[in-house]
Design a protein that fits this description.
The protein is an all-alpha fold. The chain is built from 14 helices and no strands.
Length: 301
């Protein structure tokens, strides 16, 4: 029963929705903003679950794959179709509630809010090639080494920029002054990018067969760990320490927010040995939840 529940939460991508809420709450508290309305959090839960599940909806019983996640999707395809429709309707209803309830504020948004929103949506749609081919025939998911940076960018936009846009709509809160919001955006971007590169290790054989030139395919697992993951994490950690020293952030906050970086280093070293898919979904994605929890805890000191 417990094993079925774990597969349901992680294979079904419902944990991804929880991560989106946790990271949004983290950035909201760190920027000292008011929490957005409840429908916004419904939307921010539903959208990533539907978005990530979309990639597996083409799996059929004739698919040949040793991937237990694909097998789970094939076995539960009927339920997942209902889930996709339910979450899509729920998320769209929350969007309509926000849109219609704040229509006047939305129509009077400054142009750069509109430009930012359109750009974020464009990147998100292009990642799966969801735009009609006659309009824009591009699938960013097949861009090899660029793919994890795009994933990280979409996540950072979702949890750092989108809440600011909605806060402007709902509470007329101006964009934060200074560079703190930008640093938080880059931190989430790089952390989620590292997380995505670690996931590419799981897909090494599949990507190699597809000739998709990810970091892992080009450099191998060991070189990716030692020459890509560890340097990125080290640079992120050092930039974090430099920033906190300039901003005179209390040492307790620095220590708590350093925990996810340090544990990610430990997990990165463990990836030179083959791991089951649930290890990636629970442990590696769990690092993002840990980061959010540490960020939230840091604001309460």
């Amino acid at each position: 029963m417990v094993a079925k529940l774990i597969r349901f939460i992680f294979f079904g991508n419902y944990f991804i929705g929880l991560l989106a809420i946790a990271l949004t709450m983290e950035s909201t508290l760190q920027l000292g903003l008011e929490f957005n309305s409840f429908p916004y959090y419904i939307m921010i839960f539903c959208a990533p679950v539907v978005y990530y599940t979309h990639a597996y909806m083409g799996a059929t019983r004739f698919s040949r794959s040793s991937n237990p996640r694909v097998g789970w999707f094939i076995k539960n395809q009927r339920f997942l179709r209902y889930s996709q429709w339910t979450l899509s309707i729920l998320g769209f209803s929350a969007f309509l509630f926000l849109f219609l309830g704040n229509l006047n504020a939305i129509l009077h948004l400054p142009w750069y809010y509109w430009a930012g929103t359109v750009f974020m949506l464009l990147i998100a749609f292009l990642y799966y090639g969801l735009l009609p081919s006659y309009f824009f025939n591009l699938n960013l998911r097949n861009t090899g080494w660029l793919k994890p940076f795009i994933i990280g960018f979409i996540w950072a936009c979702t949890v750092n920029i989108l809440p600011l846009i909605i806060s402007k709509v709902e509470n007329d809160t101006n964009f934060p002054a200074g560079e703190f919001w930008l640093w938080l955006f880059v931190k989430n971007w790089m952390f989620c990018t590292v997380n995505a590169i670690m996931f590419d290790i799981k897909d090494y054989e599949i990507d190699a067969n597809k000739e998709l030139k990810t970091f892992v395919v080009q450099f191998g697992i060991n070189k990716t760990i030692f020459f890509i993951l560890i340097p990125l994490l080290t640079i992120g950690m050092l930039s974090f320490l430099v920033f906190t020293s300039f901003e005179h952030i209390p040492s307790e906050q620095v220590l708590i927010n350093s925990i996810p970086f340090l544990l990610t280093l430990v997990v990165a070293f463990s990836l030179n040995l083959k791991k089951p898919i649930l290890y990636y979904l629970i442990v590696i994605d769990g690092l993002i939840l840990l980061k959010a929890c540490c960020g939230i805890a840091g604001t309460m000191i």
